[in-house]
Write a structure and sequence with these properties.
Blueprint (H helix, E strand, L loop, with lengths): L1 H21 L2 E8 L8 E8 L4 E9 L5 E7 L4 E7 L2 E7 L4 E8 L4 E6 L2 H33 L3 H28 L5 H5 L9 H14 L4 H13 L12 E3 L5 E3 L7 E7 L4 H17 L4 E8 L3 H11 L4 E5 L3 H5 L7 E5 L5 E4 L3 H12 L1
Parallel strand pairs: 1-7, 11-12, 12-13
Antiparallel strand pairs: 1-4, 2-3, 2-5, 5-6, 7-8, 9-10, 11-14, 14-15
Helix pairs in contact: 2-3, 5-6, 7-10
């Protein structure tokens, strides 16, 4: 009899435990400071795979006093998006959390202060820490590079590039440490957007495999695993993804227009100093080797049109340029940082990826002697 009672109590406790697990909640509490005209609501959306988009989850009502709150069941770690007006902010929710958000109005956008979410804090701290390490290693060199570019001092530019090469391994080691500090938080999803897959593929793969081992079933991990497959999906020898876009004169240009030529595709932006430093050398190579067998094509990535056009004029770039404003071409080629490039053979297959101007000079010399 006592054994029967014990078993009954055991199963009751199991039931209570299961109910507790299924009703675990996470919540958002917030307010909007000192704003006379308040939005009616804030939209909450959850990251979804395989759509790679944020699917609507709730409309959170904003009270007349500026306060808002929401709570819901915690099903899995994920990235969420809050949208206030046209502005979106992200939350990295790794467990049941009571998140507190205060919005204040800046000059042209909302300024959020977020408490109570470890993953979200890590997500927002990562780019700041990355910029701090970049400034530590390359800050002084960046100023020197700008001066050398304005003076068209190629000797100094070459010296700076050599110094960057010497410092880069130490910078990568620091970057690996920053990624390891994130553990398997969903903050990893945003952090990897800042890593150049062509220079940091090993650390990206290591980070994604860690997520796959520790949190294999969450949407973020599934998306990252697919990202890793795409990153490896355009290997040397593969056919380059087709694309088309508008050139500066408004005409439509497609990759197919270059069939039968060796083609150097340069992904760049006006704000990318490393890209701009290469431009004088690329111009010299273009002027030397431009022919029926060789051409160049520039793809501006996430650039403002006025800045993009001004940089083209200032650097004297004579080859066709497309401004990839919606990042469609960049996404197809998995461009996550700049500079990047691909070199195609006449059949449109990738011969080289991310080669510097010196290596490109040797390739062209070998092809066209």
């Amino acid at each position: 009899m006592r054994k029967t009672r014990f078993l009954c109590m055991y199963f009751i406790l199991l039931g209570i435990s299961a109910i507790a697990q299924t009703t675990a909640q996470w919540s958002i509490h917030g307010n909007i400071e000192k704003e006379e005209e308040l939005p009616n609501s804030i939209s909450l959306a959850a990251f979804s795979f395989p759509s790679e988009s944020f699917e609507p989850l709730a409309k959170i009502k904003i009270e007349p006093n500026g306060q808002f709150q929401w709570s819901g069941p915690f099903k899995t770690a994920n990235i969420y998006q809050l949208k206030i007006g046209e502005q979106a902010i992200r939350l990295a929710v790794d467990t049941t959390e009571a998140i507190e958000i205060t919005f204040s109005r800046g000059a042209d956008q909302w300024q959020p202060k977020i408490k109570g979410s470890s993953g979200t804090a890590k997500m927002y701290q990562f780019p700041a820490k990355l910029r701090e390490r970049e400034a530590f290693y390359f800050g002084d060199l960046k100023q020197e590079m700008e001066t050398a570019m304005n003076n068209k001092d190629e000797a100094t530019l070459a010296k700076i590039q050599e110094q960057v090469g010497q410092l880069f391994p130490r910078f990568v080691a620091d970057l690996q440490s920053l990624l390891q500090d994130l553990g398997s938080s969903t903050a990893v999803y945003g952090a990897l957007d800042y890593i150049d897959p062509n220079k940091g593929q090993a650390m990206i793969e290591q980070t994604i495999l860690r997520m796959q081992a520790e949190k294999p079933h969450i949407p973020v991990t599934k998306s990252l695993v697919e990202r890793l497959a795409k990153m490896k999906g355009i290997p040397i020898g593969a056919v380059a993804p087709p694309f088309s876009g508008q050139s500066m004169d408004g005409s439509t240009v497609s990759l197919g227009d270059y069939t039968g030529k060796y083609l150097y595709i340069d992904f760049w932006a006006s704000w990318c100093l490393a890209c701009r430093a290469e431009n004088p050398k690329l111009v010299a190579l273009f002027n030397t080797y431009k022919s029926a067998q060789f051409d160049m094509l520039g793809i501006g990535i996430k650039d403002k049109e006025a800045s993009w056009k001004a940089a083209i004029a200032k650097d004297g770039l004579p080859w066709t340029q497309l401004n990839d404003t919606d990042n469609g071409i960049g996404s197809a080629y998995f461009v996550m940082s700049l500079p990047q490039n691909v070199f195609l053979d006449p059949a449109g297959k990738i011969l080289y990826r991310n080669i510097g101007s010196e290596e490109l000079a040797e390739v062209l010399k070998g092809l066209f002697k």
